[in-house]
Amino acid sequence: MDIETEIQALYQKGIEIDHDLYVTLQMCLIASQHTLLYSTHPNNTLSEAIFILTSLWGLTNIHALHLTATSSFDLVREFQVSRDLRHQHRQQQEELTSEMTRTTVSESVVFITGLENSTKEFQSKLQKFMHVMDPTSFFLVVPIIKRLEENDNLPRFSTTFKGINKYLKDRFWFCQEHVSPLVPPNISMALQNEHFEDIGATPIVCDFNVSKLSFLRSKAHQVELIRDIKSYIYDIVIFGRLHRMVSGGIPTFLIESMHLFLKVYAAVNNYDYVIPEMVKVAAKKLLPLHINILSDPNDEPTLLYGSDVRLVRQVINKWNEELVVEDIVNKVQPPV
User: Fold this and answer.
1) Are the beta carbons of 250 and 233 closer than 8 angstroms?
2) I want to staple 118 with a disulfide (CB 3.0 to 4.6 A). Which of 61, 122, 198, 258 is the partner?
3) What is the pTM of this model?
4) CA–CA separation, 138 vs 290, rounded Å?
5) How far is CA 30 from CA 26, 219, 284, in A?
6) Alpha carbon distance 45, 32 (integer Å)
7) Under 8 Å between Cβ of 36 and 145
8) What SS3 class is residue 317?
9) What is the rounded CA–CA span in Å between residue 98 and residue 86?
């Protein structure tokens, strides 16, 4: 059963959940990747995400952290695993053909609200912590960021995520907006304390079990990316690097991230292969978090050919990351 049929079955049972949030959480568990969520109502998004993981899927190793400007990094240290245990686990992992063939849902899912309000020191420690720890073995970090909008210009990711360290931001697979947060009636949470742990509930639909997770990981590993699809991905990345509104290019690691996204996305939709439309979806999910919009009109290349700097500034203000990615996927020719 593909994920669309699964969601429709929930709707028929009267369980209203956000489609994109449901798909995002399932893909993160399959790929064991950290992911960013953003919303105008982070607390509602947190409630619905926990509702999906606990009440629908029956997962219990769920944590939630609420950060402030004075939060201590000790809140995160409990996820520290000894060096010997990490080494032992990595040896076990090397014996497997792929990290996606694991059969246990052993990850702790750590939701974080208020990350954008935390100190630079806290974010630096978190980034190093996520780098040292094996992100595919012990825990998944899912920050929920409050979306900020500019009064005069189009909303930009750079505005929403301006309080987050660039290197920390690069540790996340992609970002997903929770467009219309709904507070599920089955769960109530007031974020008055900084720490929650072992959040759980009696599952309503415990369909996302260990065997299903193992099957989807195996299926994703077997999804084939043909040469034309890989070339299409390279063309999108190269065109993005050369786009007149992109500053600083696009990191190379994004290519592998897109490969992983496509394999998992195809698996959850019951495909054994990747089609060009899936590549467009991957670009729209992954690119906005990892590109920077040109901010200084003096760096815009058309000034070399006589453009007026005032007009260029007005043009820049009409662009955001989503429009840039839309422009890229519209201009790059997909394989026939």
Assistant:
1) no
2) 122
3) 0.82
4) 25
5) 6, 10, 20
6) 20
7) yes
8) coil
9) 17
Give the strand pairing for 195-196 and 62-66. Answer: antiparallel
What is the dihedral sign for C-alpha 199, 203, 204, 207?
positive
Q: Which domains does the chain have, with CATH numbers?
A: 3-212 (3.40.50.300), 224-331 (1.10.8.80)
Residue whose token pair is 């990316």 = 225
**Which pair of tokens denotes residue 173?**
């697979």
Residues 6+ apart with CB under 8 A from 131: 171
Q: Which two three-digit tokens encode residue 157?
A: 């990711």
Q: Which residue, chain included where needed, has tokens 């919303």?
A: 39
d(CA 224, CA 259) in angstroms, rounded, equals 10
Q: Beta strand pairing status for 292-293 and 62-66?
A: unpaired
- What are the tokens at 332? 């790059």
Q: Strands, DSSP E only, in the chain?
A: 36-39, 62-66, 108-113, 139-146, 175-177, 195-196, 246-247, 292-293
Closest CA to 53 of 265, 196, 199, 269: 199
Is residue 128 within 8 Å of residue 77, measured between CB atoms?
Answer: no
pLDDT at 161: 77
Residue 88 identity (one-letter amino acid): Q
Whether the CB-CB separation of 234 and 252 falls below 8 Å is answered with no
* pLDDT, tens digit, 9 for 90 and up, residues 292-324: 888 888 877 777 677 788 888 888 888 888 899
Report pLDDT digits (tens) over 209-237: 667 888 888 999 999 999 999 999 999 99
Residue written as token pair 């246990």: 104
Q: Three-class SS string for 172-209?
A: CCCEEECCCCCCCCCCCCCCCCCEECCCCCCCCCCCCC
Q: Mean pLDDT check: name the lowest of 61-70, 97-106, 111-120, 148-157.
A: 97-106
